[in-house]
Specification:
globular, 5-stranded antiparallel beta sheet, binds 1-deoxynojirimycin, 15 helices, 24% helix, 8-stranded parallel beta sheet, alpha/beta
Protein backbone atom coordinates (compact mmCIF):
# COMPACT_ATOMS: atom_id res chain seq x y z
CA UNK A 1 0.00 0.00 0.00
CA UNK A 2 1.23 3.47 -0.89
CA UNK A 3 2.11 5.63 2.06
CA UNK A 4 1.47 8.71 -0.02
CA UNK A 5 -1.63 10.76 0.82
CA UNK A 6 -4.45 10.66 -1.75
CA UNK A 7 -3.70 14.09 -3.17
CA UNK A 8 -0.20 13.04 -4.20
CA UNK A 9 -1.26 10.01 -6.22
CA UNK A 10 -4.54 11.31 -7.62
CA UNK A 11 -5.26 13.06 -10.90
CA UNK A 12 -7.41 16.19 -10.59
CA UNK A 13 -9.94 17.12 -13.28
CA UNK A 14 -11.14 20.70 -13.40
CA UNK A 15 -14.82 21.28 -14.14
CA UNK A 16 -16.02 24.71 -15.19
CA UNK A 17 -19.61 24.16 -14.03
CA UNK A 18 -21.25 26.55 -16.51
CA UNK A 19 -19.87 24.46 -19.34
CA UNK A 20 -19.97 20.83 -18.27
CA UNK A 21 -23.58 19.57 -18.40
CA UNK A 22 -26.86 21.45 -18.41
CA UNK A 23 -29.84 19.49 -17.06
CA UNK A 24 -32.42 22.28 -16.90
CA UNK A 25 -32.29 23.57 -20.46
CA UNK A 26 -31.25 27.12 -19.61
CA UNK A 27 -28.05 26.71 -21.63
CA UNK A 28 -25.86 26.79 -18.51
CA UNK A 29 -24.29 23.75 -16.85
CA UNK A 30 -25.31 22.84 -13.31
CA UNK A 31 -24.49 20.61 -10.33
CA UNK A 32 -26.97 17.83 -11.21
CA UNK A 33 -25.19 17.78 -14.59
CA UNK A 34 -21.90 17.00 -12.86
CA UNK A 35 -23.60 14.26 -10.82
CA UNK A 36 -25.08 12.86 -14.03
CA UNK A 37 -21.58 12.54 -15.49
CA UNK A 38 -20.02 10.94 -12.42
CA UNK A 39 -19.71 7.55 -14.07
CA UNK A 40 -17.86 9.14 -16.98
CA UNK A 41 -15.46 10.86 -14.61
CA UNK A 42 -14.77 8.01 -12.23
CA UNK A 43 -15.03 4.95 -14.43
CA UNK A 44 -14.85 5.85 -18.12
CA UNK A 45 -12.12 8.43 -17.78
CA UNK A 46 -10.70 7.30 -14.47
CA UNK A 47 -9.61 10.49 -12.72
CA UNK A 48 -9.43 10.59 -8.92
CA UNK A 49 -10.64 14.06 -7.93
CA UNK A 50 -12.71 16.87 -9.39
CA UNK A 51 -12.16 20.56 -8.79
CA UNK A 52 -15.30 22.55 -9.45
CA UNK A 53 -14.94 26.26 -10.28
CA UNK A 54 -17.27 28.56 -8.26
CA UNK A 55 -20.98 27.74 -8.00
CA UNK A 56 -21.85 30.24 -5.25
CA UNK A 57 -24.57 32.91 -5.44
CA UNK A 58 -23.09 35.61 -7.63
CA UNK A 59 -24.14 38.35 -10.01
CA UNK A 60 -21.76 36.58 -12.43
CA UNK A 61 -19.78 39.68 -13.36
CA UNK A 62 -16.73 37.38 -13.48
CA UNK A 63 -18.73 34.16 -13.91
CA UNK A 64 -18.81 33.21 -10.27
CA UNK A 65 -15.44 34.61 -9.13
CA UNK A 66 -17.55 37.41 -7.65
CA UNK A 67 -19.24 35.72 -4.71
CA UNK A 68 -22.25 37.25 -2.98
CA UNK A 69 -22.72 34.41 -0.47
CA UNK A 70 -19.90 32.05 0.53
CA UNK A 71 -22.19 29.41 2.03
CA UNK A 72 -24.84 28.68 -0.55
CA UNK A 73 -25.38 27.54 -4.12
CA UNK A 74 -26.38 29.82 -6.97
CA UNK A 75 -29.93 28.74 -8.00
CA UNK A 76 -28.61 28.72 -11.57
CA UNK A 77 -26.45 25.73 -10.58
CA UNK A 78 -28.92 23.98 -8.26
CA UNK A 79 -29.47 23.73 -4.53
CA UNK A 80 -27.48 22.75 -1.48
CA UNK A 81 -29.21 19.35 -1.70
CA UNK A 82 -27.87 19.00 -5.23
CA UNK A 83 -24.42 19.74 -3.85
CA UNK A 84 -24.78 17.11 -1.14
CA UNK A 85 -25.98 14.62 -3.77
CA UNK A 86 -22.96 15.43 -5.90
CA UNK A 87 -20.53 14.88 -3.04
CA UNK A 88 -22.31 11.65 -2.07
CA UNK A 89 -22.23 10.35 -5.66
CA UNK A 90 -18.55 11.25 -6.01
CA UNK A 91 -17.56 9.64 -2.74
CA UNK A 92 -19.47 6.44 -3.54
CA UNK A 93 -17.27 6.13 -6.61
CA UNK A 94 -14.11 6.99 -4.75
CA UNK A 95 -13.79 10.47 -6.25
CA UNK A 96 -12.63 13.40 -4.14
CA UNK A 97 -14.34 16.77 -4.45
CA UNK A 98 -12.31 19.99 -4.38
CA UNK A 99 -14.16 23.29 -4.50
CA UNK A 100 -13.08 26.79 -5.38
CA UNK A 101 -12.63 29.33 -2.60
CA UNK A 102 -12.42 33.02 -3.50
CA UNK A 103 -10.95 34.84 -0.50
CA UNK A 104 -9.29 37.90 -2.07
CA UNK A 105 -12.52 39.61 -3.06
CA UNK A 106 -16.26 39.26 -2.78
CA UNK A 107 -18.93 40.62 -5.07
CA UNK A 108 -19.92 44.24 -4.54
CA UNK A 109 -23.40 42.73 -4.05
CA UNK A 110 -22.27 40.68 -1.04
CA UNK A 111 -24.19 41.97 2.01
CA UNK A 112 -20.82 42.64 3.68
CA UNK A 113 -19.85 45.11 0.99
CA UNK A 114 -23.33 46.61 0.78
CA UNK A 115 -22.98 47.40 4.49
CA UNK A 116 -19.39 48.49 4.14
CA UNK A 117 -20.16 51.07 1.47
CA UNK A 118 -23.30 52.33 3.25
CA UNK A 119 -21.40 54.81 5.46
CA UNK A 120 -17.91 55.63 6.69
CA UNK A 121 -18.79 54.54 10.21
CA UNK A 122 -20.52 51.29 9.36
CA UNK A 123 -19.03 48.46 11.48
CA UNK A 124 -18.12 46.63 8.26
CA UNK A 125 -16.42 49.67 6.66
CA UNK A 126 -13.03 48.18 7.47
CA UNK A 127 -13.90 44.76 6.01
CA UNK A 128 -12.77 46.24 2.68
CA UNK A 129 -9.99 48.70 1.85
CA UNK A 130 -11.29 52.27 1.73
CA UNK A 131 -9.06 55.33 1.32
CA UNK A 132 -9.46 59.05 0.78
CA UNK A 133 -8.62 60.48 -2.64
CA UNK A 134 -5.34 62.29 -3.07
CA UNK A 135 -5.71 66.09 -2.73
CA UNK A 136 -6.27 66.35 -6.50
CA UNK A 137 -9.09 63.81 -6.27
CA UNK A 138 -7.11 61.00 -7.89
CA UNK A 139 -6.89 57.43 -6.52
CA UNK A 140 -4.80 56.77 -3.38
CA UNK A 141 -1.98 55.05 -5.29
CA UNK A 142 -0.99 53.82 -8.74
CA UNK A 143 -2.20 50.23 -8.42
CA UNK A 144 -3.93 48.84 -11.48
CA UNK A 145 -6.69 46.32 -11.80
CA UNK A 146 -5.67 43.04 -13.37
CA UNK A 147 -8.60 43.46 -15.75
CA UNK A 148 -7.68 47.02 -16.79
CA UNK A 149 -7.81 50.55 -15.38
CA UNK A 150 -7.19 51.74 -11.84
CA UNK A 151 -7.58 49.28 -8.96
CA UNK A 152 -9.56 51.98 -7.13
CA UNK A 153 -13.18 52.91 -7.60
CA UNK A 154 -14.58 56.15 -6.23
CA UNK A 155 -17.76 55.94 -4.19
CA UNK A 156 -19.63 59.24 -4.55
CA UNK A 157 -21.89 58.67 -1.56
CA UNK A 158 -19.11 58.32 1.01
CA UNK A 159 -16.37 60.23 -0.81
CA UNK A 160 -13.73 57.49 -0.66
CA UNK A 161 -12.16 54.98 -3.00
CA UNK A 162 -12.31 51.21 -2.50
CA UNK A 163 -9.71 48.75 -3.69
CA UNK A 164 -10.50 46.11 -6.33
CA UNK A 165 -7.60 44.11 -7.74
CA UNK A 166 -9.98 42.70 -10.36
CA UNK A 167 -13.32 44.15 -11.57
CA UNK A 168 -14.99 47.10 -9.84
CA UNK A 169 -17.64 44.52 -8.95
CA UNK A 170 -14.99 42.52 -7.06
CA UNK A 171 -13.95 44.65 -4.03
CA UNK A 172 -10.93 43.23 -2.15
CA UNK A 173 -11.65 41.99 1.36
CA UNK A 174 -9.41 43.45 4.05
CA UNK A 175 -7.81 40.38 5.64
CA UNK A 176 -5.91 42.58 8.09
CA UNK A 177 -9.19 42.85 9.96
CA UNK A 178 -9.49 39.71 12.14
CA UNK A 179 -13.28 39.72 11.75
CA UNK A 180 -12.84 39.08 8.03
CA UNK A 181 -10.64 36.06 8.67
CA UNK A 182 -13.11 34.74 11.20
CA UNK A 183 -16.10 35.14 8.87
CA UNK A 184 -14.25 33.64 5.91
CA UNK A 185 -13.01 30.68 7.94
CA UNK A 186 -16.57 30.03 9.08
CA UNK A 187 -17.41 29.75 5.41
CA UNK A 188 -14.68 27.13 4.97
CA UNK A 189 -16.04 25.14 7.91
CA UNK A 190 -19.47 25.14 6.31
CA UNK A 191 -18.06 23.21 3.33
CA UNK A 192 -15.66 21.07 5.34
CA UNK A 193 -18.64 19.95 7.41
CA UNK A 194 -20.33 18.98 4.13
CA UNK A 195 -17.40 16.65 3.44
CA UNK A 196 -15.57 18.52 0.71
CA UNK A 197 -12.08 17.11 0.29
CA UNK A 198 -10.27 20.31 -0.39
CA UNK A 199 -10.08 23.81 -1.78
CA UNK A 200 -8.55 25.49 -4.77
CA UNK A 201 -7.76 29.00 -3.59
CA UNK A 202 -8.32 31.81 -6.02
CA UNK A 203 -5.37 34.24 -6.46
CA UNK A 204 -3.98 33.07 -3.13
CA UNK A 205 -0.89 35.30 -3.27
CA UNK A 206 -2.92 38.49 -3.84
CA UNK A 207 -4.74 38.46 -0.49
CA UNK A 208 -2.16 40.37 1.58
CA UNK A 209 -0.84 43.64 0.23
CA UNK A 210 1.57 46.27 1.47
CA UNK A 211 -0.14 47.75 4.57
CA UNK A 212 1.17 51.20 3.60
CA UNK A 213 -0.28 50.85 0.08
CA UNK A 214 2.92 52.11 -1.53
CA UNK A 215 3.00 52.77 -5.28
CA UNK A 216 4.29 49.96 -7.48
CA UNK A 217 7.49 50.91 -9.33
CA UNK A 218 7.64 50.85 -13.13
CA UNK A 219 9.41 47.90 -14.73
CA UNK A 220 13.09 48.57 -15.46
CA UNK A 221 14.42 48.77 -19.02
CA UNK A 222 14.86 45.36 -20.57
CA UNK A 223 12.50 43.71 -18.12
CA UNK A 224 11.08 40.49 -19.50
CA UNK A 225 7.44 39.56 -18.99
CA UNK A 226 7.00 35.99 -17.68
CA UNK A 227 3.25 35.61 -18.19
CA UNK A 228 0.80 36.38 -20.98
CA UNK A 229 0.19 40.03 -21.82
CA UNK A 230 -1.97 42.09 -19.48
CA UNK A 231 -1.67 45.44 -21.28
CA UNK A 232 -0.80 48.47 -19.10
CA UNK A 233 -0.66 46.21 -16.02
CA UNK A 234 2.64 44.83 -17.37
CA UNK A 235 4.29 48.25 -17.11
CA UNK A 236 4.62 47.91 -13.33
CA UNK A 237 6.42 45.60 -10.95
CA UNK A 238 3.67 44.27 -8.75
CA UNK A 239 5.66 44.22 -5.55
CA UNK A 240 3.21 46.05 -3.32
CA UNK A 241 -0.26 45.04 -4.49
CA UNK A 242 0.25 41.31 -3.92
CA UNK A 243 2.62 38.70 -2.55
CA UNK A 244 3.11 40.34 0.86
CA UNK A 245 4.90 38.02 3.34
CA UNK A 246 1.89 38.26 5.66
CA UNK A 247 0.17 35.79 3.33
CA UNK A 248 2.21 33.07 5.04
CA UNK A 249 0.66 33.51 8.47
CA UNK A 250 -2.76 33.50 6.89
CA UNK A 251 -2.04 30.19 5.18
CA UNK A 252 -0.63 28.69 8.37
CA UNK A 253 -3.95 29.51 10.05
CA UNK A 254 -5.83 28.15 7.07
CA UNK A 255 -3.82 24.91 7.11
CA UNK A 256 -4.40 24.45 10.83
CA UNK A 257 -8.13 24.64 10.16
CA UNK A 258 -7.90 22.06 7.36
CA UNK A 259 -5.73 19.78 9.45
CA UNK A 260 -8.33 19.76 12.22
CA UNK A 261 -10.51 17.64 9.88
CA UNK A 262 -10.33 13.94 9.11
CA UNK A 263 -9.94 12.34 6.61
CA UNK A 264 -7.16 14.51 5.28
CA UNK A 265 -8.21 17.61 3.36
CA UNK A 266 -6.20 19.24 0.58
CA UNK A 267 -5.45 22.75 -0.61
CA UNK A 268 -3.97 24.07 -3.82
CA UNK A 269 -3.40 27.77 -4.31
CA UNK A 270 -3.60 29.72 -7.54
CA UNK A 271 -0.22 31.41 -7.28
CA UNK A 272 1.36 33.24 -10.19
CA UNK A 273 4.85 34.05 -9.02
CA UNK A 274 7.72 33.66 -11.50
CA UNK A 275 10.44 33.43 -8.84
CA UNK A 276 10.66 29.75 -7.95
CA UNK A 277 11.85 30.24 -4.37
CA UNK A 278 9.17 32.77 -3.56
CA UNK A 279 6.60 30.47 -5.19
CA UNK A 280 7.81 27.46 -3.22
CA UNK A 281 7.53 29.51 -0.01
CA UNK A 282 3.79 28.86 -0.14
CA UNK A 283 4.34 25.22 0.88
CA UNK A 284 5.45 26.72 4.19
CA UNK A 285 8.82 26.41 5.89
CA UNK A 286 7.56 23.41 7.81
CA UNK A 287 5.18 22.32 5.05
CA UNK A 288 2.49 23.95 7.13
CA UNK A 289 0.86 26.22 4.54
CA UNK A 290 -0.65 25.08 1.23
CA UNK A 291 -0.34 21.45 0.20
CA UNK A 292 0.59 22.87 -3.19
CA UNK A 293 0.86 26.18 -4.97
CA UNK A 294 -0.32 25.50 -8.54
CA UNK A 295 2.62 25.19 -10.90
CA UNK A 296 1.68 27.01 -14.10
CA UNK A 297 5.15 27.07 -15.57
CA UNK A 298 4.34 24.61 -18.36
CA UNK A 299 1.32 26.68 -19.37
CA UNK A 300 3.71 29.52 -20.16
CA UNK A 301 6.29 27.35 -21.87
CA UNK A 302 6.88 26.82 -25.56
CA UNK A 303 6.66 23.21 -26.75
CA UNK A 304 10.39 22.82 -26.64
CA UNK A 305 12.49 20.11 -25.00
CA UNK A 306 14.99 22.33 -23.20
CA UNK A 307 12.44 24.85 -22.05
CA UNK A 308 10.08 22.22 -20.69
CA UNK A 309 12.86 20.18 -19.09
CA UNK A 310 14.32 23.27 -17.44
CA UNK A 311 10.95 24.13 -15.93
CA UNK A 312 10.42 20.59 -14.69
CA UNK A 313 13.84 20.59 -13.10
CA UNK A 314 13.37 24.08 -11.66
CA UNK A 315 10.31 22.85 -9.79
CA UNK A 316 12.08 19.66 -8.71
CA UNK A 317 14.87 21.67 -7.13
CA UNK A 318 12.76 24.56 -5.76
CA UNK A 319 10.31 22.61 -3.64
CA UNK A 320 11.24 22.03 -0.01
CA UNK A 321 12.10 18.55 1.26
CA UNK A 322 9.00 16.45 1.58
CA UNK A 323 6.87 18.76 -0.58
CA UNK A 324 5.03 17.33 -3.56
CA UNK A 325 5.24 18.80 -7.08
CA UNK A 326 2.32 19.41 -9.44
CA UNK A 327 1.62 20.27 -13.05
CA UNK A 328 -1.10 22.10 -14.93
CA UNK A 329 -1.40 22.27 -18.73
CA UNK A 330 -4.62 24.24 -19.02
CA UNK A 331 -7.48 25.88 -17.18
CA UNK A 332 -10.37 28.28 -17.58
CA UNK A 333 -8.05 31.29 -17.83
CA UNK A 334 -5.73 30.05 -20.56
CA UNK A 335 -6.04 29.30 -24.24
CA UNK A 336 -6.74 25.63 -24.95
CA UNK A 337 -3.69 23.39 -24.91
CA UNK A 338 -4.18 22.56 -28.60
CA UNK A 339 -3.87 26.29 -29.35
CA UNK A 340 -0.77 26.92 -27.22
CA UNK A 341 1.26 23.83 -28.05
CA UNK A 342 -0.37 23.09 -31.41
CA UNK A 343 -2.73 20.23 -32.19
CA UNK A 344 0.11 17.94 -33.27
CA UNK A 345 1.70 18.16 -29.81
CA UNK A 346 -1.48 17.40 -27.86
CA UNK A 347 -0.92 13.64 -27.55
CA UNK A 348 2.62 13.91 -26.29
CA UNK A 349 1.46 16.73 -23.99
CA UNK A 350 -1.10 14.35 -22.47
CA UNK A 351 1.67 11.84 -21.84
CA UNK A 352 3.89 14.55 -20.36
CA UNK A 353 1.20 15.71 -17.92
CA UNK A 354 0.37 12.19 -16.78
CA UNK A 355 3.91 10.87 -16.44
CA UNK A 356 5.82 13.63 -14.66
CA UNK A 357 6.38 13.37 -10.92
CA UNK A 358 3.60 15.30 -9.21
CA UNK A 359 -0.15 15.79 -9.04
CA UNK A 360 -1.55 16.55 -12.52
CA UNK A 361 -4.57 18.78 -13.08
CA UNK A 362 -6.42 18.12 -16.29
CA UNK A 363 -8.84 20.70 -17.72
CA UNK A 364 -12.27 19.49 -18.87
CA UNK A 365 -12.39 18.88 -22.60
CA UNK A 366 -8.64 18.50 -23.04
CA UNK A 367 -9.23 14.75 -22.96
CA UNK A 368 -11.04 15.04 -26.30
CA UNK A 369 -8.62 17.73 -27.55
CA UNK A 370 -11.24 20.48 -27.55
CA UNK A 371 -10.06 23.43 -29.57
CA UNK A 372 -9.94 27.12 -28.72
CA UNK A 373 -13.17 28.67 -29.98
CA UNK A 374 -13.02 31.88 -31.93
CA UNK A 375 -15.58 34.14 -30.25
CA UNK A 376 -16.17 37.43 -32.06
CA UNK A 377 -15.37 40.55 -30.00
CA UNK A 378 -19.03 41.62 -29.97
CA UNK A 379 -20.04 38.18 -28.62
CA UNK A 380 -17.44 38.10 -25.82
CA UNK A 381 -18.95 37.18 -22.47
CA UNK A 382 -15.75 37.49 -20.47
CA UNK A 383 -15.40 40.96 -18.94
CA UNK A 384 -11.66 40.83 -19.43
CA UNK A 385 -12.14 40.19 -23.16
CA UNK A 386 -14.44 43.18 -23.33
CA UNK A 387 -11.93 45.42 -21.50
CA UNK A 388 -8.79 44.29 -23.30
CA UNK A 389 -9.10 43.03 -26.88
CA UNK A 390 -7.46 39.62 -27.22
CA UNK A 391 -7.52 38.82 -23.50
CA UNK A 392 -10.92 37.10 -23.54
CA UNK A 393 -11.16 33.66 -21.98
CA UNK A 394 -14.40 32.49 -23.61
CA UNK A 395 -12.52 30.41 -26.17
CA UNK A 396 -11.48 27.80 -23.60
CA UNK A 397 -14.84 27.78 -21.77
CA UNK A 398 -17.20 26.46 -24.44
CA UNK A 399 -19.67 23.66 -23.62
CA UNK A 400 -18.31 20.15 -23.18
CA UNK A 401 -18.82 18.07 -26.31
CA UNK A 402 -20.51 14.86 -25.25
CA UNK A 403 -21.99 13.59 -28.49
CA UNK A 404 -23.07 14.58 -31.99
CA UNK A 405 -26.63 15.57 -31.07
CA UNK A 406 -28.04 19.08 -30.77
CA UNK A 407 -25.85 21.26 -28.46
CA UNK A 408 -23.33 18.39 -28.35
CA UNK A 409 -25.40 16.72 -25.63
CA UNK A 410 -24.43 19.55 -23.27
CA UNK A 411 -27.97 20.99 -23.06
CA UNK A 412 -31.27 19.23 -23.70
CA UNK A 413 -32.16 19.41 -27.40
CA UNK A 414 -35.07 21.80 -26.82
CA UNK A 415 -32.71 24.42 -25.35
CA UNK A 416 -32.81 27.60 -27.42
CA UNK A 417 -29.18 28.56 -27.04
CA UNK A 418 -26.18 27.75 -24.85
CA UNK A 419 -24.36 30.43 -22.82
CA UNK A 420 -21.36 30.18 -25.13
CA UNK A 421 -21.66 28.58 -28.56
CA UNK A 422 -20.72 24.94 -28.85
CA UNK A 423 -17.51 24.71 -30.88
CA UNK A 424 -18.20 24.02 -34.58
CA UNK A 425 -16.34 20.72 -34.73
CA UNK A 426 -18.55 19.00 -32.13
CA UNK A 427 -20.22 16.53 -34.50
CA UNK A 428 -16.85 14.84 -35.08
CA UNK A 429 -15.09 15.77 -31.85
CA UNK A 430 -17.07 14.43 -28.93
CA UNK A 431 -16.91 11.86 -26.15
CA UNK A 432 -19.29 9.34 -27.78
CA UNK A 433 -17.38 9.21 -31.06
CA UNK A 434 -14.00 9.03 -29.37
CA UNK A 435 -15.08 6.25 -27.03
CA UNK A 436 -15.61 4.03 -30.06
CA UNK A 437 -12.24 4.85 -31.58
CA UNK A 438 -9.19 3.15 -30.06
CA UNK A 439 -6.91 5.74 -31.67
CA UNK A 440 -8.79 8.79 -30.34
CA UNK A 441 -7.45 11.32 -27.86
CA UNK A 442 -9.97 10.10 -25.30
CA UNK A 443 -8.73 6.53 -25.68
CA UNK A 444 -5.19 7.79 -25.14
CA UNK A 445 -6.17 9.67 -21.95
CA UNK A 446 -8.02 6.61 -20.67
CA UNK A 447 -5.03 4.40 -21.37
CA UNK A 448 -2.63 6.85 -19.73
CA UNK A 449 -4.84 7.28 -16.66
CA UNK A 450 -5.28 3.52 -16.30
CA UNK A 451 -1.56 2.92 -16.72
CA UNK A 452 -0.70 5.57 -14.16
CA UNK A 453 -3.18 4.15 -11.69
CA UNK A 454 -1.47 0.77 -11.89
CA UNK A 455 2.08 2.11 -11.85
CA UNK A 456 3.72 2.97 -8.53
CA UNK A 457 6.71 4.25 -10.55
CA UNK A 458 4.59 6.84 -12.35
CA UNK A 459 2.70 7.77 -9.23
CA UNK A 460 5.60 8.25 -6.89
CA UNK A 461 8.92 7.24 -8.48
CA UNK A 462 11.77 9.74 -8.63
CA UNK A 463 12.25 11.84 -11.78
CA UNK A 464 15.57 11.65 -13.62
CA UNK A 465 16.23 13.07 -17.07
CA UNK A 466 18.06 10.72 -19.42
CA UNK A 467 20.09 11.46 -22.49
CA UNK A 468 18.24 11.48 -25.78
CA UNK A 469 18.72 12.81 -29.32
CA UNK A 470 17.88 16.46 -30.03
CA UNK A 471 14.14 17.08 -30.03
CA UNK A 472 13.43 14.20 -27.67
CA UNK A 473 12.65 14.69 -23.99
CA UNK A 474 13.30 11.49 -22.05
CA UNK A 475 13.13 10.78 -18.34
CA UNK A 476 12.95 7.85 -16.01
CA UNK A 477 10.42 7.47 -13.24
CA UNK A 478 11.70 5.30 -10.46
CA UNK A 479 13.86 2.51 -11.86
CA UNK A 480 11.27 0.76 -13.98
CA UNK A 481 9.72 3.29 -16.35
CA UNK A 482 11.20 5.49 -19.04
CA UNK A 483 9.18 8.13 -20.88
CA UNK A 484 10.36 9.40 -24.26
CA UNK A 485 8.61 12.28 -26.02
CA UNK A 486 9.44 13.30 -29.55
CA UNK A 487 8.67 17.00 -29.48
CA UNK A 488 9.34 17.50 -33.18
CA UNK A 489 7.36 16.84 -36.33
CA UNK A 490 10.14 14.57 -37.66
CA UNK A 491 10.90 10.92 -36.96
CA UNK A 492 13.88 10.45 -34.63
CA UNK A 493 15.99 7.29 -34.36
CA UNK A 494 16.54 6.32 -30.70
CA UNK A 495 18.02 3.37 -28.86
CA UNK A 496 16.22 2.91 -25.58
CA UNK A 497 16.30 -0.37 -23.71
CA UNK A 498 13.11 -2.04 -22.50
CA UNK A 499 9.74 -2.68 -24.06
CA UNK A 500 7.04 -0.26 -25.10
CA UNK A 501 4.05 -0.32 -22.76
CA UNK A 502 2.13 2.53 -24.31
CA UNK A 503 2.49 4.74 -27.38
CA UNK A 504 0.63 8.00 -27.94
CA UNK A 505 -0.20 6.65 -31.41
CA UNK A 506 -2.00 3.67 -29.91
CA UNK A 507 -0.30 1.08 -32.13
CA UNK A 508 2.82 -1.06 -32.54
CA UNK A 509 5.68 1.21 -31.54
CA UNK A 510 9.35 0.30 -31.05
CA UNK A 511 12.10 1.57 -28.81
CA UNK A 512 14.25 2.32 -31.87
CA UNK A 513 12.21 4.94 -33.69
CA UNK A 514 10.04 7.73 -32.42
CA UNK A 515 7.54 8.85 -35.03
CA UNK A 516 6.73 12.58 -35.37
CA UNK A 517 5.24 13.86 -32.08
CA UNK A 518 5.15 10.37 -30.64
CA UNK A 519 5.50 9.66 -26.95
CA UNK A 520 6.30 6.30 -25.42
CA UNK A 521 6.08 4.77 -21.99
CA UNK A 522 8.81 2.14 -21.89
CA UNK A 523 9.17 -0.51 -19.19
CA UNK A 524 12.78 -1.13 -18.31
C1 LIG B 1 -8.41 33.78 -11.01
C2 LIG B 1 -9.51 33.00 -11.65
O1 LIG B 1 -9.00 31.79 -12.13
C3 LIG B 1 -10.09 33.86 -12.73
O2 LIG B 1 -10.99 33.16 -13.55
C4 LIG B 1 -10.74 35.06 -12.10
O3 LIG B 1 -11.19 35.93 -13.10
C5 LIG B 1 -9.75 35.80 -11.19
N1 LIG B 1 -8.98 34.93 -10.38
C6 LIG B 1 -10.47 36.74 -10.27
O4 LIG B 1 -11.16 36.01 -9.29
Amino acid sequence: MSTHPWWQTTVIYQIYPRSFQDTTGNGIGDLPGITMRMEYLADTLGIGAIWISPFYPSPMADFGYDVSDYTDINPMFGTINDFDDLVGAAHRRGLKVIIDWVPNHSSDEHPWFVESRSSRDNPKRDWYTWRDPKPDGSPPNNWLSFFGGSAWEFDEATGQYYLHSFLTKQPDLNWRNPEVQEAMFEGLQFWLDRDVDGFRIDVAHVIMKDPDLRDNPRVPDGWERKFKSHGEYDEFLHIHDKGHPDNHQLFRDFRALLDSYQPERFSVGEIHIPDWDEWAGYYGEDLDELHQPFNFSLVHSAWDVEEIASRVEAQESAIPDGAWPNYVLGNHDEKRLTERYGAAAARAAAMLLLTLRGTPTLYYGDEIAMTEADIAPEDQQDPWGRNLPGAGRDGCRTPMQWDGSEHAGFSPAATATTWLPVTDDYSQRNVATQLDDPTSMLSLYRALLAYRKGSPALQTGAYRRVEAPAGVYAYERGDSVLVALNMTGEPVAVSFPGTVALSTQGDGATTKLLRPNEGLIIEL
